Amino acid sequence: MYLQIGEQERGADRSRSEPPAPMMALRSSTCEEDAELAARAGEFETYLFIRGEQNIVEHLKRTWSSLWTERAIHNRSILRVDSARIGGGVIVQRMVLSRVSGVLQTVNVASGELSEIVINVGLGLGAGIVSGVVEADQITVSKEGDLQSGHLRFRYVTGNKQKQVVFNQRTGFGTILVDTLSHQRLRPALEYIELCELVRTAVRLEDVYGYPLDIEFAMEGSRLWILQVRPVATFLANLNQTIESFSLAADRTGTCIIHEVARS
After folding, report:
1. Which of 80, 99, 217, 261 is deepest in the core (most CB within 10 A)?
2. Domain span at 209
């Protein structure tokens, strides 16, 4: 599979005698990290720009072993994670050379507003956004109206993006924090057409999953990549509690009957 990815990257350039060794990302996807009721992003190790089969095998072992770090074991004890839920897998993906990247939540967690989408997007790789080491633009999009074909209603706050995380070309692997060119710092990271594509994709994903989502994304050139999708755990827990406490029963005709809840 790794060599097949190299062949795809070579594409129409047949002047090369061998396909290039593609750079890969290795990240965990575990039952406890990406569970519907307790999404704990970033708890385990992630490795970026890993090249070569032997290096991939070595970093796969490191990613897998991060399930048993002192931090992971401590968190399990605090949260009382069932030992049966310990486990998962390691995802090996082709590196996306993103010029911008970010995180989108299909609800506004800070305000509790279900009819708003909140996007944090910055320059370079998503590692800087997720870790919080770089400044990002914040976009709040209203869900009202026809998002698939209509105009978006949004508020765009541009951050002073002085730093960004990029591929470390000097070492040939990993990432490095660098200064952003001055003319790019206050320029919006996303163009309007890119924002439209991102929002419409996120809404379709939320419809498929059936609950609020936390989505990591990147733009490589003009192409949108969805890198990872997980539940917004706080909202999903409230939704499940609401369904359990205020469920709709049906009579024999199939008509739903709403049971009034006694108020104290």
Report:
1. 217
2. 96-264
